[in-house]
Amino acid sequence: MKVDPITFAVIKSGLDSIADDMAYTVVRIARSEIVKDVMDFSAALCAGDGQMVAQAKTIAQHLGAIPEAMASVLAKFEGDLREGDVVIMNDPYHGGMHLPDIFMFMPIFFGGARRAFAVVICHHTDVGGRVPGSNASDSTEIYQEGLRIPPLKLYDRGVLNTTLEALIKINVRVPDRVWGDLSAQFAAAQVGRRGLEKLLQRYGADEVDAYMQELLDYAERLTRQEIRTWPKGTYRFTDYIDSDGFSDKPIPINVAITVNGDGTLLVDYTGSSPQVKGALNSTLSFTHSLTYLSVRCVLAKNVPNNVGLFRCITVKAPEASVLNPVMPAPCAARALTGYRVFDTMLGALAQIVPDKVPAAGEGGNSVICISGLRPNRQPFIIVDMICGAWGGRPDKDGLEAVTNASQNLSNMPVEVMEAEHPVRIEDYSFVPDSCGAGQYRGGVGIRRSYRILAPEALLQLRTDRVAFQPYGLNGGEPGGSSRNFIEIGNERNALPGKITTTVVQGTLIIHEQAGAGGFGNPLLRDPSQVREDFIDGKISAAFAEQHYAVLFGPRGALDVERTARLRSTRMSTPEPSDARHGA
Asked: In sequence order, what are the residues at sequence separation of 6 or more whose Cβ sits closer than 8 angstroms to the Cβ of residue 339?
């Protein structure tokens, strides 16, 4: 086929716009805060053969898992998909990620043939299981985590499967929210179908299909072309999860990236931890997704986000490891492991393309889940995913109070949480001195505190980076550690990073998220920028002196002469970092 560049660009942009329209539909219709406010959902379009061709600007961690989930759907229903069918699934051992993430696939037919699929994924507030939210890190087998759904038809030729509907509703704690979000997924898929039908009508089904395949090949060509410019060799990096919550044993994530001369990569996770008792195990589909998005982050902006890119990357993850678990390993809190895969991949990629990789971010969002019963005995479930800080970049400071770079989430508004649930947010602020010092500092961490207003509630924490701080790069220092506290009356005590426990009315829960790592030698940071951070309350005068050798005079004025002398001394005799920034 002769490719017309104008038509190619129009169809590519059209597919991207349709996927984004699907995402906007979810936001407008969804019932739960985790979808409509935190924005934990994704949308994509696949060609008729199941290959993903376009992604909405949604959760990057989700989207790379679509190929394996799609393969599971086609293995079950190929030859038995008709117009009006809708398939859902969530089982991690059928290509899914964890049980709260329900995939929905709608085949799109035109002219009597299947031409595409609309795909929508939402993280649901609850899918049953031993604890509200179905997201606990201390489950020990998948059977505890909730309702497992293999690929099943929710709609068969346009007719709702009321048996499946009843099964879902009776197994979840908040059926109105869950079914409302599933309905949002269905509406978004319909928007995708209608948008694609218009594109097919305008350009012809065969023409659009051919351009879809060209779009995949184009992404592969651009990816190979860029990888060929990278220095050949094998690059290794190791990062750690603090523990699985059952022991203090660290969980290593080890990667070796081999850059081949043909423009492909081999990403080998040999040496990573065996699968763990707690629910931190990452399914192979999710490990693939984090690997793909890590590489995508350092490629040129014009590389399309589709499976053409994935073709250039081979992933090796040992079976029965924390990155490729076998039954009945629990997976509910697998996102934390995904974040650490992302950090580990970037640590290795920093050796390959150092001008494109920032220092480590906060280590992934913190999940604070608070659940219980209202006075009318109706359940409430808060799933708060706190987004934090980016690491210092090769030419800019890190950001704070933003989504982790591997996601596209948003912090839940305080007003929404308080209006919907019996909880009061008493502190939502930055944590001073939590940033990793550097020529370009890391973002500071976030503090959030929750006053329990219900008579009793179940608290679940999934936090990390207590023992292993976010790393710095190119001489930058690590970010500060994460911390958790419980305050009852006037007594405050520390909490571990991962715990499920009952709390009573009036209890205050405090979470301080880790700050991000710094980039470059802190002594090269412009003293005026250090002063600006001090004036903004992001660092203290003591931090400025200890890490930047910057001194202030009366009323916070920069003491230029004393700073110059101290920096000269430090440059000639470098001081070790403090214990907070230990290796």
From this structure: 363, 364, 365, 404, 406, 464
Residue 139 to residue 135: CA distance in whole angstroms: 9
Q: Rounded CA gap, 299 and 306, in Å?
A: 13
* Other CB atoms within 10 A of residue 226 CB: 17
Report the C-alpha gap between 474 and 454 in whole angstroms.
48
Q: How much is the pLDDT for 577?
A: 47
Nearest to 152 by CA among 163, 143, 141: 163
What tens digit of pLDDT does each residue of 281-318 get? 999 999 999 999 999 999 999 999 999 999 999 999 99
Considering the entire predicted model, what is its pTM? 0.95
Q: What is the distance between the alpha carbons of residues 160 and 175, in angstroms, rounded to a whole number?
A: 17
Smallest Cα–Cα separation from 471: which of 236, 297, 295, 239? 239
Show the tokens assigned to 251: 């969980």
Closest by Cα among 103, 99, 62, 65 to 331: 99
Chain centroid, CA 517 distance in Å = 18
Q: How far is CA 33 from the centre of its chain?
A: 17
Q: What is the mean pLDDT of residues 229-233?
A: 98
From residue 202, alpha-carbon distances to 47, 205, 323, 407 in Å are 17, 9, 44, 34
pLDDT at 576: 53
The answer to whether the beta carbons of residues 507 and 488 sit under 8 Å apart is yes
CA atoms lying within 13 Å on the CB side of residue 262: 6
Predicted pLDDT of residue 321: 98
Bridge-partner residues for 488, per DSSP? 491
* Pairwise CA distance, residues 260 & 110, whole Å: 41
DSSP label at residue 101:
E
Instruction: Give yes or no for a cis peptide into 328 (omega within 30° of 0).
Output: yes
Contact 390, 402 (CB under 8 A): yes
Are 364 and 457 contacting, i.e. CB atoms less than 8 angstroms apart? Answer: no
What average pLDDT does the chain have?
A: 95
Predicted confidence at residue 175, as pLDDT, reads 97
Structure tokens at 58: 């949604």
Mapped onto helix, strand or coil, the DSSP state of residue 315 is strand
Q: At what angle do helices 5-29 and 205-227 cross, to 10 degrees?
A: 100
Do residues 525 and 443 touch, judged by C-beta distance below 8 A? no
Helices 541-548 and 527-535: angle between axes, nearest 10 degrees: 160
